[in-house]
Write a structure and sequence with these properties.
alpha/beta, Rossmann fold, GMP Synthetase, Chain A, domain 3, 2 domains, 13-stranded mixed beta sheet, four-stranded mixed beta sheet, 26% helix, globular
């Protein structure tokens, strides 16, 4: 079996023996993990993403990773796949599990640095090989659609594409409708050894809920936070901070993070629910920028809702239309008190928006739009 980094071939035996010179840090991490796996390593230390708190290191066993790979293979046609693309960093669980799946199911893997547009990167390297299976973060799919729309058709030949690392916006779901290949949004975390549930985003099988993989048990606590148990968790219950609606014993609708609830004027607001509502309003105005709802400390409101838009300031007329939609569509307590423009959001290395550390003022600074009283 031969693997590739960009266009350079590496027989699996050379990776096993460490007979390679890393082209970059991402390759060193990926091939280094593969070498350890091929040598029979039984435990691996990984960082959690830190998307809602301080990152930490946890240890995961080889058996847990093999169980995760088997569960994915039961849900997706990995046995029918021959070629896979590693376009996310192998320093995190999503990238490591792509390597494990390739090793366990004898897939010819092509690795590239975790760039914003993986298909454009491959074209720039001279060719765009065919892949049956790939994992992307939502931002990568967004960049493909907006920077190289002609390459979207290339994805039609894939047998499965998984999107992980964060929530998907209405715009991302819209993009998936242009692609014939099955695209799945994943739910999981480092502690569950990558995804434990999938949601089909496009095609005839499109659904609005996550389906747990084979062997995964689900439950909710008194706050409706999801709890997970299975071979991937060493049959121990893992409590999450994700609020869900448990439809059946193995299906759920994700609502948001329990630690992403704002208290504004004594009324609790779930951030993700509000962000979804506002995203649809941006789409209605033809805007496709990323957004984030942030609660800033306020003497009057306790937490003042601020809408951050990852874009240059909107024209005054467009912003006024947005304010009109916000005021006429949302509940009064949901309407942001301010719109703030920001060139780029703070994100983790896996692309998730960091919720901590946002700052703002009560006025209209250089990055701010008009307020709402």
């Amino acid at each position: 079996m031969i693997w590739y980094w960009n266009e350079t071939p590496y027989p699996i035996e050379s990776i096993q023996q460490g007979d390679f010179i890393a082209e970059d840090e991402a390759m060193a991490t990926a091939w280094g993990f593969a070498q350890s796996w091929l040598a029979g390593a039984g435990k691996f230390t990984l960082p959690t993403s830190g998307s809602t708190g301080t990152p930490k290191q946890i240890t995961i066993s080889r058996a847990q990773m093999q169980a995760s790979a088997r569960a994915t293979a039961q849900a997706l046609p990995l046995a029918d796949c021959q070629n896979a693309l590693l376009a996310i960093h192998a320093g995190y669980i999503g990238g490591k599990m792509m390597l494990v799946r390739a090793l366990e199911y004898q897939l010819a893997l092509t690795g590239i640095p975790p760039v914003g547009n993986p298909l454009a990167h491959l074209v720039g390297k001279g060719k765009l090989p065919f892949f049956d299976f790939m994992a992307l973060v939502p931002a990568q799919l967004y960049n493909i659609a907006h920077e190289t729309p002609d390459l979207l058709a290339y994805l039609n030949g894939c047998k499965a594409i998984i999107l992980g690392g964060g929530d998907v916006s209405a715009r991302i779901v819209e993009i998936t409708q242009q692609i014939q290949a099955p695209i799945y949004h994943t739910y999981g975390m480092t502690e569950t050894v990558s995804h434990i549930a999938l949601r089909r985003l496009n095609g005839a099988g499109k659904v609005d809920y996550f389906q747990a993989l084979e062997g995964i048990k689900l439950a909710v606590d008194a706050q409706n936070c999801l709890q997970i148990c299975g071979e991937v968790t060493q049959n121990e219950w893992v409590k999450t901070n994700d609020i869900v609606e448990l439809i059946t014993e193995n299906r759920f609708i994700w609502k948001g993070r329990a630690d992403n609830i704002l208290n504004t004027g004594g009324i609790k607001v779930q951030i993700e629910v509000l962000e979804t509502k506002i995203q649809s309003l941006l789409t209605e105005l033809g805007l496709s920028c990323a957004l984030a709802i942030v609660g800033l400390q306020d003497e009057k409101w306790q937490e003042r809702i601020v809408l951050f838009l990852e874009t240059p300031a909107l024209p005054a007329q467009t912003e006024e239309k947005l304010w009109t939609l916000l005021r006429t569509t949302l509940y009064s307590h949901e309407v942001p008190k301010q719109i703030t423009y920001q060139s780029s959001f703070p994100r983790t290395e896996t692309g998730k928006i960091k919720r901590e550390g946002w700052k703002g003022d009560k006025g209209n600074g250089k990055t701010g739009g008009r307020g709402n009283g």
